[in-house]
Amino acid sequence: MEVQMKAVVQCGGRGTRLRPHTSILPKPLMPIGARPVLELVLKWLRRNGIGEVFVTTGYLGHLIRSVCGDGSQWNMQITYTQELEPLGTIGPLSLLREQLNEPFLVLNGDVLTDLNLNQLIHNHRKSDANITIGTSVRSTKMDFGVIDEIDGRVTGFREKPELTNLVSMGIYCMNPVVLERIPSGVPFGFDDLMFQMLEEEARVNVFKHTGLWLDIGRVEDFLKAQDIAWDEQSSAFATAAA
């Protein structure tokens, strides 16, 4: 089933968490097995009915363009933007104001997931939110003993507790009206956008995903991805159900 929605794949970051590897390759070209992560992401989008993709590039962007080309090898159309100066995580969308005239997808170019895109898009379209954030639950183990206190007296103690939070997967559905909030030519992050929308009490929804999600920018997730068979038949990249 064709989703009929444009997607923006963000590939302009410097990949500082994977240094020194990303001093040679941009993060989206880091290999998962024998293939760059961006190739896996693009093929997953295509199998989920996405045919038109905009790839935002900055650092080492020429390498990304040389690897992915115009997308014809995957039966999709790829258009590139190039940041002369880093524009943050959401700022690059300012370069695509004319092209994004309908609800669109935005995702980081280093995310591997079995998220059902059709469900995410359907959830967004039937809501009155201007942004729907794909979310997952992540646990973070503290490296410290955590102390609770009142007026200097210890009331509780937890040794290296595990904290559980609902976190952004780096995948969003957005309406074009969001572009009006993004300034041109200056860095603007997703956090800036969220603070602005929350302050104005603008509606933002979440779509909760309970399946697989790996953020390849994290060393732990990058290594974990190497142990999974990211091929055409992998359940992680199965075509989303309608």
TrEMBL record:
SUPFAM superfamilies hit by this protein: Nucleotide-diphospho-sugar transferases (SSF53448)
Gene3D superfamilies reported for this sequence: Spore Coat Polysaccharide Biosynthesis Protein SpsA, Chain A (3.90.550.10)
InterPro entries found in the cross-reference section: Mannose-1P_guanyltransferase, NTP_transferase_dom, Nucleotide-diphossugar_trans
Residue ranges constituting the Nucleotidyl transferase domain according to the UniProt record: 6-227
Protein's recorded name: NDP-sugar pyrophosphorylase family protein
